[in-house]
Amino acid sequence: MTAPRRALIVIDAQQEYFDGLLPIQYPARDESIASIQTAINTAQQAGTPVVLVQHELPAEAPVFASGSATWQNHPEVAAHENVAAKRIKKQFSSIFADTGLEAWLGEQGIDTITLVGYMTNNCVIASAAAAEPLGFAVEVLSDATGAIDLSNDAGTAAARQVHEILMALLHSNWAAVTDTATWATALRTSAPLTKSDLITSAAQSRSTRQETQVSPR
Questions:
Q1: What is the pLDDT of residue 198?
Q2: Which residue among 35, 145, 165, 205 has its CA within the 20 to 30 Å range from the CA of 217?
Q3: Rounded to an integer, what is the distance from CA 178 to the centroid of its chain?
């Protein structure tokens, strides 16, 4: 198996998720941003390109308003703005929608993207799914992403439930999900990370259910 040619994509690590209307609730914000910082430092030390993504909406928008305080990158990420390999702005959930990122990755010879940032339940999953038909392998760092509580007419879900379910969903088809420390080792050794698949995930789920069932007396 050939060594992956990676790029680290930092998605929307902006103040909106800390001081704005969409505060990340799981994992803890200070922990996830620390993991993002670790991932950036590790990538830079390994010579892996880092792409910083910022969601940007019109100045009158309630969130991610262009030029606003909450539109700014978190200070731990903003510190790397001048040395990032590429910076892009987006208006949609997917990092590929109208951004030119796909072409840039191709020009750099990148075949694997590592996703960190926010939110698990929106831009991370949308970007991972969008990468599939483009031919990119995807990695997601579970401790360097985060989710929010959700409640609407369709139901209610706590942030931890949202995050953990989406990590399992991503690993079953769209991405190799791991933590930052494991990824850092893989990056330093140029080792690929493997994901599961729907058939294996379904079989393991059946096996787990069978093991936990209590036999009738």
A1: 92
A2: 205
A3: 11
Q: What is the DSSP string of 46-69?
A: HT--EEEEEE-B-TTSSSSBTTST
Q: Which tokens go with 199?
A: 């058939």
In the block, tokens 């059946």 appear at 206
Distance linking the first and last C-alpha atoms of the chain: 51
Instruction: Tell me which DSSP letter residue 174 carries.
Output: T
Residue 138 in contact with residue 193, Cβ under 8 Å? no
Looking at residue 40, its amino acid is I
CA 198 to chain centre: 20
Would you state the pLDDT for residue 211? 65
Q: Which residues of the chain have pLDDT under 50?
A: 214-215
pLDDT of residue 213: 63
Give this prediction's pTM.
0.94
Virtual torsion, Cα 74, 80, 84, 87, nearest 10 deg: 30
**Could you give all domains of the chain from N- to C-terminal order, each with its CATH number?**
6-212 (3.40.50.850)
CB 137 within 8 Å of CB 31: no
Question: 207 burial class (0-12, 13-18, 19+ CB within 10 angstroms)?
Answer: exposed
Q: Which residues pair with 172 in a beta bridge?
A: none
What is the reported pLDDT for 204? 87
Whole-number Å distance between alpha carbons of 16 and 38: 21
Q: How many CB atoms lie within 10 A of CB 20?
A: 17
